[in-house]
Design brief:
Layout (H helix, E strand, L loop, with lengths): L7 H6 L5 H4 L3 H30 L7 H46 L3 H6 L2 H43 L1 H48 L1 H6 L3 H54 L4 H43 L21 E8 L10 E8 L4 E5 L6 H8 L7 E6 L2 E2 L5 H5 L2 E4 L10 H6 L7 H10 L3 H5 L18 H15 L3 E5 L7 H15 L3 E5 L3 H6 L2 E6 L2 E6 L1 H7 L2 H9 L3
Parallel strand pairs: 3-8, 3-9, 6-7, 7-8
Antiparallel strand pairs: 1-2, 1-4, 4-5, 9-10
Helix pairs in contact: 3-4, 3-6, 3-10, 4-6, 6-7, 6-10, 7-9, 7-10, 9-10, 14-16, 16-17
Length: 584
């Protein structure tokens, strides 16, 4: 990620990233500003009306009028404040909802390189904790800051009108109030960012543990994980304690300075009333304006801390928005032939994973797969078999060489359009925390119930699905926790069958099935492979024997290819793998 802005002004400028999300809600913004203007004006009018009430004691006939006016002002202020709260609160909710949707959409568009170096828990924290800070700023702190700013300026003007002499004395204390805010602002910002980073660390730790809960419990490491999470929480708490301590000291200092200055000024004013140079109502008006101004300054110091935290959060979100996919999407993209024949070709491809630059995953790798051909990729772990799939799906681009589909370089094709023509069954099936029906429908979002059931039957999944409490509409739990490994695999196969794409990528597609289910699924896959280009990564003998061609890989290179019998006769790496893994 990019380096976060460090200067005070730069950090606050990060909040400018909210501007595009504010523009669509101009009506709420205008409504909030109008209500704010009315409520602030009514609040500033109140001390003047209070002065008239006190001074009217000398004229009893005017008392009722001035009390009636005070109540009217209070009523206007109440209605305007309610309207202000409604507009700004709804504005905050809508802006942050738009921000979250936009950030989520942007993250989905990033390439695998980004997700390989970024923890999912950190991204969740940005979408939740940081966005919540911004919601608080837009829906509350922003309104308080502007209202307080108006009140401070308005109170200062009215103080000068009420008593220029006392107002002049009040101005002397302003530098004493502003100075600690300016000096401590940078430290508070740093502490706020550190606190949010530690929260993200704790969230990432928890997310990682929950995703691996089966391994955690099977190794009986619950105590170890509790201790690790506890340490992360303690670090988060320590950072928060530092931030809170700074904010508390800042608030206390400002309050002492503000009210100390007010007390000194009032002491002078009291002597003026005693001497007869000022009326009691004028002093009361001055006191109220001073209290309003002091209270607003105090509110600004608290809001300032919130704004600092939110600017840090917005800075982190801006960093995510600044991330770009390294997979360039041409404009306009080249259209794939229609209908697609499914001819695949990798020409002299060399590729290193971004996180493993020291070892090449593929070296001068060339492979051509004819339309409708089934090719099995075999080889030891780390040979580069899965990397071939990664490049075909364009999760990465090769550094050297080309990947072609029907003669078109896939770098010239929209990645989304490319992947629409490919069905993948991974070694570790991904089951979403929803119903079985919706998991299968993921292969074709507009599929009918009949098509979903047909795909499940072909994948030998229908029988166990109808046996679930709510059948196809049964919730499967997070990561398909309510299904066995073989059942999860068959559900993933049903999803790929439903997609009905011209190209199939099968990565150990039958590895989790028992012998009976494997035979049935193999028959379904064979029917599906007819007329479709299929690449299979497999260690199971049945899958390899059905392939038109077997490609043997080692250290990112093709070391042999041919039929099962031809490769056995060569007595090379394939023969060794067959003896060790195929039990031949």
């Amino acid at each position: 990620m990019s380096t976060p802005p460090s200067g005070p002004g730069q950090r606050l400028l990060s909040l400018r990233g909210l501007a595009p999300f504010l523009r669509p809600h101009r009506r709420l913004l205008v409504g909030w500003l109008l209500a704010l203007a009315v409520s602030s004006s009514a609040a500033l009018f109140f001390p003047w009306a209070f002065r008239q009430v006190i001074d009217s004691f000398k004229h009893p006939s005017e008392v009722d009028y001035w009390f009636g006016l005070m109540f009217t002002v209070a009523l206007v202020m109440a209605l305007a404040t309610a309207a202000r709260f409604y507009c700004v609160s709804l504005l905050g909710e809508r802006v942050i909802a738009d921000l979250r949707r936009s950030l989520y959409s942007h993250l989905l568009s990033l390439d695998q390189r980004f997700f390989e170096r970024t923890r999912s828990g950190e991204l969740i924290s940005r979408l939740s904790a940081d966005a919540e800070l911004l919601r608080s700023v837009v829906g509350s702190s922003m309104s308080i800051a502007l209202r307080s700013g108006i009140t401070v300026v308005g109170s200062a003007v009215m103080l000068a009108i009420t008593s220029p002499h006392l107002a002049g004395l009040t101005l002397i204390g302003i530098p004493l109030i502003v100075l600690p805010i300016a000096l401590s602002g940078r430290r508070v910002r740093g502490a706020a960012r550190a606190s949010q980073d530690r929260v993200a660390d704790a969230n990432a730790r928890a997310g990682e543990t929950f995703n691996a809960i089966h391994t955690v419990q099977s190794y009986a490491r619950e105590g170890f994980e509790r201790e690790r999470f506890g340490d992360a929480v303690l670090r988060s708490l320590g950072a928060a304690r530092k931030r809170i301590r700074m904010q508390s000291l800042l608030t206390a200092s400002v309050i002492v300075l503000v009210f100390g200055a007010i007390t000194a000024v009032l002491w002078i004013g009291a002597h003026q009333v005693i001497s007869g140079s000022m009326t009691g109502g004028t002093l009361a008006q001055f006191v109220l304006y001073a209290m309003f101004g002091a209270g607003s300054v105090s509110a600004l110091t608290e809001v300032w801390s919130e704004v600092q935290r939110a600017s840090g959060g917005m800075g982190r979100i801006n960093e995510l928005f600044a991330e770009d996919s390294h997979l360039a999407v041409p404009s306009p993209p080249v259209a794939l032939p229609s209908p697609l024949h499914g001819e695949l070709a990798l020409e002299q491809v060399t590729f290193h994973y971004p996180t493993r630059q020291d070892a090449a995953a593929l070296v001068d790798f060339s492979l051509r797969v004819a339309p409708g051909e089934t090719v099995a990729l075999v080889g030891p772990s780390g040979a580069g078999k899965s990397t071939v799939f990664q490049l075909l799906l364009r999760f990465h681009d090769p550094e050297v060489g080309r990947v072609l589909l029907d003669g078109v370089d896939i770098r010239d094709v929209d990645p989304v359009g490319l992947r629409e023509h490919i069905a993948l069954v991974p070694q570790d099936p991904v089951i979403f925390g929803t119903t079985a029906r919706e998991n299968i429908r993921y292969g074709k979002l507009d599929a009918t119930p009949e098509q979903i059931e047909a795909a499940a039957r072909s994948a030998e999944a229908h029988e166990f699905l109808v046996a679930l409490p709510q059948g196809y509409d049964s919730e499967l739990g997070e990561h398909g926790a309510r299904l066995s490994g073989g059942q999860q695999q068959r559900l993933a196969i049903a999803r790929a069958l439903l997609k009905n794409a011209p190209i199939l990528l099968l990565d150990e597609a039958t590895s989790a099935l028992d012998a009976h289910s494997e035979r049935a699924v193999q028959q379904a896959l064979e029917r599906l492979m007819q007329g479709r280009t299929t690449l299979v990564i497999a260690h199971r003998l049945a899958t390899v024997l059905k392939a038109d061609r077997i490609v043997v890989m080692d250290h990112g290179r093709i070391v042999a290819h041919g039929t099962h019998a031809e490769l056995l006769a060569q007595n090379g790496l394939y023969a060794e793998l067959a003896r060790l893994q195929f039990d031949h």
